[in-house]
Write a sequence for this structure.
């Protein structure tokens, strides 16, 4: 079962969803994630499962809502402008506590922007995105293999916590082909969906609602959500670290930007610069503790690299909490930082150590 | 003593939040009666709209979900595709279905989703305080048409049944009215026919439009409101069966 196949991210995420037992896919075409929709259009009926091309992203997220309400595993995928349209539905999903998986293969913005890869939707993804006081779990794979693995985790997290899980990639991850092992990961032990609306046979009526107007119900519901989110922060934060222990400069990046940063750090080490990197895998919950602990080391500096004008930068600064300087290098609007550009930034910060 | 009438079990034994003379109570009862007559309570899933009927689940005792404004047909699509053996209905007002949700109903109808839509047309937005609806009549005074709906500024009353009838994805489309007992009996027949079509798993979307009184925002007594439906609304929204499945 360890056979590797060459797949682009958009197709691989679809196959991973099928491995995870997705029952329904609902989506609307948008570049650069179109391969995902086309792949699911072909594969879902083959598996005897449901594929619907919706009339809009608004409809897609509401179809996901309907499917999820019945207890099914449901997903959609889109790219930045489409995800903006879904925000109404995502807020309702949070209020209703319905599990689902949403893939955002980010492109340049704002507005129609471009179809080139970008990371400009970090704020939207990690702050909830729609109206009201809520969060989505946000997973940020940096390779097609990790995309395949995190897609499966996403469905488990969604069901375990009754929450929207967003898999946040970018146009490179979606389009890029990499060798990937389509391994089926063991499913978590998950709670039964007793809340699902399936027909009130032999039990009282189930009601899924987010309008809570009386007796302080809405504040209590918000408190319940916050407790749930606190539990997720405690148990589900994921981060990868590389050469951090002795580093004078620590780069922080996620997704494809982290791949560029990793290459730059390796070259920097070869040049005698003590560089390391931290890669958040969950963007919410953010690995605040890991970055905060790294900032305790005296004399260190941080370099945040993003394909945006500086969004995750704010979370890194909150985590570092003034204990170390935090610098930023970003490319925006569909531009991708090069290894040489990142290396130049690292060289500016860190002294070359001559043993 | 002989019982000649009793509350149907799927209609909960409680008071509603509806205004005196509102049509929603009647519409809820008729839907609940049909569900009980067809014995489908335990497999029916309902979708409550945004609007006055948002609390429909407090009155109709089936599994229900409350969804974003206008999106009920999309939610119903997700539900029906996952659970084709369940009976799925949406209950939507005119603002919900004909304005903000116009795209969702049009495309659910065009896909021929096997769902039943109960469309309550009272020519006004009730919950938000009596603003113009897409179905507001010309010259009708509302909170946002203080000089009456003007065709130049506000366009025309939107006729949903006529619009959906041309779509091959719809199977049964009828407009009825709640303004007197005779017409209420016709409403009951139409709702039953729509649900039966779905129970028999026949293709196509079924929709019943109900002209329904809103005395509060029509600034009329309940009795005047009923007369206004008969005398004014039915001129713009003629009562008829626009489309029916061919008898097999």
């Amino acid at each position: 079962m360890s056979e590797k196949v060459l797949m682009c991210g958009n197709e691989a995420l679809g196959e991973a969803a099928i491995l995870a037992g997705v029952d329904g896919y609902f989506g609307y075409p948008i570049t650069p994630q179109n391969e995902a929709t086309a792949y699911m259009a072909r594969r879902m009926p083959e598996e005897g499962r449901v594929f619907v091309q919706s009339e809009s992203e608004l409809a897609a997220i509401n179809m996901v809502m309907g499917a999820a309400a019945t207890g099914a595993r449901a997903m959609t995928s889109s790219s930045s402008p489409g995800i903006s349209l879904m925000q109404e539905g995502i807020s309702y999903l949070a209020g209703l506590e319905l599990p689902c998986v949403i893939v955002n293969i980010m492109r340049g913005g704002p507005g129609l922007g471009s179809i080139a890869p970008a990371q400009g939707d970090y704020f939207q993804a990690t702050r909830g995105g729609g109206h009201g006081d809520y969060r989505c779990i946000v997973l940020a794979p940096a390779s097609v293999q990790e995309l395949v693995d995190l897609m499966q985790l996403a469905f488990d997290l969604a069901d375990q916590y009754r929450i929207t899980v967003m898999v946040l990639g970018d146009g490179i991850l979606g389009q890029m082909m990499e060798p990937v092992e389509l391994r089926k990961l063991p499913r978590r032990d998950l709670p039964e969906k007793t809340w699902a609306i399936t027909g009130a046979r032999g039990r009282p009526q189930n009601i899924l609602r987010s309008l809570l107007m009386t007796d302080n119900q809405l504040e209590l519901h918000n408190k319940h959500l916050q407790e749930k989110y606190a539990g997720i922060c405690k148990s589900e934060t994921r981060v990868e670290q590389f050469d951090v222990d002795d580093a004078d400069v620590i780069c922080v990046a996620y997704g494809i930007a982290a791949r560029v940063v990793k290459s730059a750090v390796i070259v920097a080490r070869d040049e005698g610069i003590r560089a390391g990197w931290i890669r958040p895998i969950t963007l919410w919950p953010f690995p605040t503790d890991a970055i905060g602990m790294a900032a305790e080391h005296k004399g260190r500096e941080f370099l945040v690299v993003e394909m945006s004008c500086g969004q995750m930068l704010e979370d890194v600064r909150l985590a570092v909490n003034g204990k170390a300087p935090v610098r930023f290098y970003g490319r925006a609007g569909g531009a991708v930082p090069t290894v040489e550009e990142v290396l130049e930034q690292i060289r500016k910060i860190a002294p070359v150590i001559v043993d | 003593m002989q019982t000649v009438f009793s509350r149907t079990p799927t209609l909960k034994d409680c008071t509603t939040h509806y205004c005196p003379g509102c049509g929603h109570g009647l519409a809820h009862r008729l839907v609940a009666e049909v569900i009980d007559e067809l014995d489908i309570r335990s497999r029916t899933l309902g979708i409550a709209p945004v609007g006055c009927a948002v609390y429909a689940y407090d009155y109709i005792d089936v599994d229900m979900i409350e969804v974003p404004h206008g999106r009920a047909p999309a939610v119903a699509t997700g539900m029906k595709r996952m659970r084709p053996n369940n009976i799925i209905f949406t209950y939507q007002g005119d603002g919900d279905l004909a304005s903000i949700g116009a795209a969702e109903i049009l495309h659910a109808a065009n896909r021929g989703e096997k769902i039943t839509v109960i469309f309550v047309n009272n020519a006004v937005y009730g919950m938000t305080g009596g603003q113009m609806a897409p179905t507001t009549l010309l010259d009708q005074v509302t909170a946002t048409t203080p000089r009456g709906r003007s065709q130049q500024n506000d366009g025309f009353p939107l006729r949903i049944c006529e619009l959906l009838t041309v779509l091959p994805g719809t199977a049964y489309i009828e407009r009825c009215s709640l303004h007197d007992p005779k017409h209420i009996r016709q409403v009951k027949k139409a709702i039953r026919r729509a649900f039966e079509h779905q129970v028999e798993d026949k293709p196509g979307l079924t929709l019943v439009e109900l002209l329904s009184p809103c005395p509060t925002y029509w600034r009329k007594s309940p009795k005047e409101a009923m007369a206004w439906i008969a005398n004014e609304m039915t001129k713009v929204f003629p009562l008829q069966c626009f489309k029916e499945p061919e008898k097999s």
Remarks:
- Chain A touches chain B at residues 23-24, 26, 50, 52, 54-56, 58-60, 62-70, 72, 74, 88-89, 92, 96, 197-202, 205-211 (CB under 8 Å).
- The domain at 240-349 of chain A is CATH 3.40.50.920 (Rossmann fold).
